[in-house]
Each structure stands twice: as C-alpha cells, then as structure tokens.
Amino acid sequence: MSRIVTLTTDFGTSDAFVGVMKGVILGIAPEARIVDLTHEVPPQDVRAGAYLLCGAVPYFPSGTIHVAVVDPGVGSARRALVVATRTALFVAPDNGLVSLVAPHAAVRGIWDVSRSRSRLRTVSRTFHGRDVFAPIAAALACGAAPAGLGARVRRMERLAPARLRRERTRTLGEVIWVDRFGNLVTNVGAADAPGARRDGAAARRTFRARALSVTIGTHVLPLLDSYADVPQGHAVALVNSNDLVEIAVNQGSAAASLGLGRGARVIVRRD
After folding, report:
1. Residue 191: domain span
2. CATH no. for residue 59?
3. Contact present, 156 and 94 (Cβ < 8 Å)
C-alpha cells in the first residue's frame, strides 16, 4: 500500500532531525510517499504550525497521513495523538497543533498513542518525532487502524481562537501570521466581510462587488485584487490564496514597512 505522509515541523534543515524521521518511516513503510510541507515553523510556535497546516491539508488526497511536530512539551506528560477526520489522519502532540485543521465537527475519532507498541523500542525524552510520531505514522501507512495503536479518547487540546468580531458594517480581526515576504495575514476570511454571504464563492464576489477598506494601525487601505494594483513600495489589502484578508507591500515587506506583526488589530469596513 502506498500512502502519502506529510511532515510539518519546526526542526529546520540544518540538523538531521527531518532526515532521521524519514528514515524511520521508510524503514517501516518503504512504499510511503513522503511530502515535506515545511520544517520552518518558528521554534515552539504551535499556533504558527497550526495555521500552516490548516492552509495546506485541503489540497492533499483523501487518506493522507499528516505528521506535525511542533512540540515544546516533548518529554512531559502531554499526550501523543492520532486524530481522524473524514479525509485525513493526523499524528501530533496534544497541544492544539491540529485544532484548526480538525474542528470539532470534522473529527471522527481521537486516539492516545503515547504508549503505543508501535513506538520505537527506546523512546528518548527529546525526540518524539523520531521515536513516537514517525513510527506511528508508518504503522498507519502500512494499514494499521488507529484503534489498534492506542486508546480512544474524547477530547484534545485546542488553541484559543484569534479575536474576530462581526458587526453590521465592519469586521474586527487580527494578524495571525507573517509570511517570508513580510505579508500580514489576518484571520478575517472572505465569508467574514460585512454583509457577505457565508459560502466561499459568494463571499469572494462580495469582496469584489463592495467598496471595502482595511484599517491596520494608522493605515487605511483599499481592498483590491492583487499586489500589482498599487505602485511598487505601496501597501495594499487583498484576499490571499487561502481566502484570508492580507496586507502586503508591492515588492516589499508590509511587516517592515508598517512596523506591525502578529496580533495587530485589523478592521475590514464597508465604506
């Protein structure tokens, strides 16, 4: 059986951690197809890992196994989990890392695999990516059922949601991510626009049809279609590829130019 296994970590690539995890997976499930989502999650930044995972998972085939290791609690009493949704399996620490991509309504089952017999024989206190999560993912790739790997549990840790408030003529949110281009990604989605319908296609049409502006800090920006709709070096607000409002600078860094980052409040207003 050939299963896709994705890896999302904060390990970087200067050390051998990622390669070792792949070696463990391939040693158990040699037919697995491993895809690196990213290994550049900021160290110990669970919320950033959750955001990146959430934006990537919908584009993978049903049945993909997603291994996510951003684990500041490694070696502690925090649990290791397998979480099943209708379309995917997630192998991750129980710290909220998969809470955005597996909301309550989507979860089909949760299993505690902290002491699974499928772990490596020796489990270190500092590298559960190698000793716990990789072999569990490999067992799943070989066809093991989650129920055979651990005890079913009812709950998992979830991140507190970012602030979002919808009003009649405006929506208040915040910056949740700064990408490598310096773009400020907010938690205001297309369906959150003032007066928008709640389905994606109609919401995107609402953005295009209505005169909307985005306020961030002392800056008030029109919501346009693309980076190139403003001159080079100028700031612009737009809806990005994940249908989230984003503040950018054409061929520059909004984070650097505006002096703002994660947690900055934003207001999307109907003019």
Report:
1. 165-270
2. 3.40.50.10790
3. yes
